Every structure is written in C-alpha cells, then in structure tokens.
Amino acid sequence: MSKESVATAVAYNAEKTWDMVDVDKYPIVDRGTPEYKELVKFCRSEMEKTGYCLLQDFVTADALKALADEGEKLAPLAFHNTLTGNAYLTPEDEALDSADPRRMVSTTALGAVAFDQIPETALIHRLYMWDGLLEFVRDALGYEQLHRYADPLGALNIAVMGNGDHLRWHFDQTDFVVSLLLRPSLGGGEYEVYPMTRSEKEENFDRVRAILKGSREGILTLDIKPGCLVLFKGRHSLHRVTPITGEVDRLIALFGYDAKPGVVSSDHLRMIRYGRTG
Prior knowledge:
By secondary structure, the protein is an alpha+beta fold.
C-alpha cells in the first residue's frame, strides 16, 4: 500500500486534531487553566526525579486503534538495518583499555519509516504538526522555545520492530525523546532503563560496565502501554528495548523536537537509519 492511500484506509477521522487526545485526562488545549498548569507541574516533577514521564492513555481508544492501523499500513515502507556499536554511539577508540565500557559493543536492529513517507493527511502527521502538542511538550520539559526538527526524513518517524529486533543499551545523543507507543509486540519489547546512570560531572563507568555485562541491579522496566506518550531524557540514563518475540511488529511514533530551530540530521545518520540521505 502506498503512503498516499493510508489516509483513506482508516475509518476514524478526528474533526479537530485534539480530538485524538483524551483532553479530559490531559487538558492541553487551553494552556491558561489551573488543570493545565497542574499537569505541567506533574510532568516537570517526574522528569526531575527520574528523567522520564509516562502519560498513559494520552490518546483516546478510537484514535489509538486508527493510529495503530495507520502505522501497520506504513510499516512495509520502513528501512531496516542492523548496527554494531557501543552504548555511547561513538566510534570505537582502540587507545582505550579493553575493559572500558566505550570498547564494549553489541547490536541494534530495527526499521524506520521516514517523515517523507508519512502522508500529510495521516493522523500521526496531523498530531505531530499540531501546535498544541508542541506547546505542551515545551512546557512539560521546561523550555523557553521548542521547534520541530527541520529534517525531511527525521522530523517524525515510525519505528518498526519485528521478531528479533532490539535496541542495545545506550545513551541518547539528544537531550530528550518524545514517543507514542502505537502497538506492542506479542512478547519482548520491554523498555528498560537505569535512571540517571551518569551526570555531566561523573560518567560512572563502573556502573555502565556492570550493566553491559548483565547486572540487573537498579534497572527499571517502564510500564509503557499502547497510547502512552513518553517524555524521556536519555542522554544520562542508560536504556534499551529487549528483543521482540512473535510475528506482531512493535510500532512507536517518534516526534522530533529541538530547542534550536533548523536542526537536521547528518548524512551519516540518515544513511544508517533510512538507507538514504534524501
């Protein structure tokens, strides 16, 4: 199925974009209300304590079904790749001691539907482009300004993870990630994290090394259900997605934002994630 036919393939149609959001539970339409301010306060508190905030049932049940159907129809367009690297997403440095965690490598395997493969009429595209969501994320994360990625491939993605796919233990290279789980896998696909593994002042290499060698001490499995909007600061928290089992793909929408305008990915990142630079 082509991307152009996706919009007509789902029966659900939100008259207004915010109809997709459970605005009774998450009153993000009117930023001036006390309820909105309490929600923002909650999100900031969670981020400060743990580095993440889980907003369960962020979208309505009807919208979630339509979003999942939409994602399933787009999934065949995904570029799949298997990568080998370290938890820091940096080139291997052979000058480092062999026991240094920056020398410890493993694999990541997943597919990604790029932004330019998602039609503008698609529900997930409409949600991402809605200023109300952008403003809420900005407020929840405490930024003065927030902008959508300018990258024609990376602004909005749908990550597609099939049987055997996984994300290795890693730190993000961005300050935060915003995601919406559209559909879980039959098995596996657990989001595991060691909150605040490192800081700007302390890399905590011993703790990282222990986790990479299999230690479970201090590791949390986040309770991310379908329809959950996740705000996550992964630059300092080691995290992974466990291997998928079963024949149902795990589908998750990844919303790209940055505090600076005009941010785009490098050609190298585009090639490994989408198999092309444009």
